[in-house]
Write a structure and sequence with these properties.
The chain is built from two helices and ten strands, in the order E-E-E-H-E-E-E-H-E-E-E-E. With about 130 residues, it is an alpha+beta fold. The chain has a single domain, classed as Transferase(Phosphotransferase), domain 1.
Length: about 130
């Protein structure tokens, strides 16, 4: 097990088989867990391929297990970061913490990915809106 994050809000470990285990702590742990699960399921349903796949969700712990999206990036210019989070918005999700520390680099396909959806918001995709005329 490799511990990659340990804060008052969550602990993230990577297991030897490459899965990511994230445990939630502190105030609102349950609502943050539920929110992240809801957002990840939404993104998977939309076919978003640059976010973790939810493999398991355990509300009792609360804890999730996801696929690994690579390692955190050390440097990412602002324009690149902005366009990455803008791409996420096309899938109907606003991250609400669009910081470089929530970006990883997946070497297998050279893709920047976004992680950590505790505070993300599901928004309606502009092209999926219903117009009443």
């Amino acid at each position: 097990m490799l511990k990659v994050k340990d804060t008052l809000r969550s602990t993230v470990n990577i297991s030897f088989d490459g899965r990511v285990l994230k445990a939630y702590h502190g105030p609102d742990a349950h609502s943050r867990f539920e929110n992240e699960v809801r957002v990840l399921r939404h993104l998977e349903a939309r076919g978003c391929d640059f976010v973790p796949r939810l493999l398991e969700a355990d509300a009792h712990k609360p804890r999730i297990i996801t696929s690994n999206c690579g390692s955190r990036v050390e440097h990412l210019d602002e324009a690149r970061t902005k366009s990455l989070f803008a791409e996420l918005a096309k899938f109907g999700v606003r991250h609400d913490d669009p910081d470089m520390r929530n970006v990883t680099y997946r070497q297998s396909d050279g893709r920047f990915c976004i992680v950590d959806f505790e505070f993300a918001t599901i928004i309606e995709h502009p092209h999926h809106g219903h117009s009443h005329s």
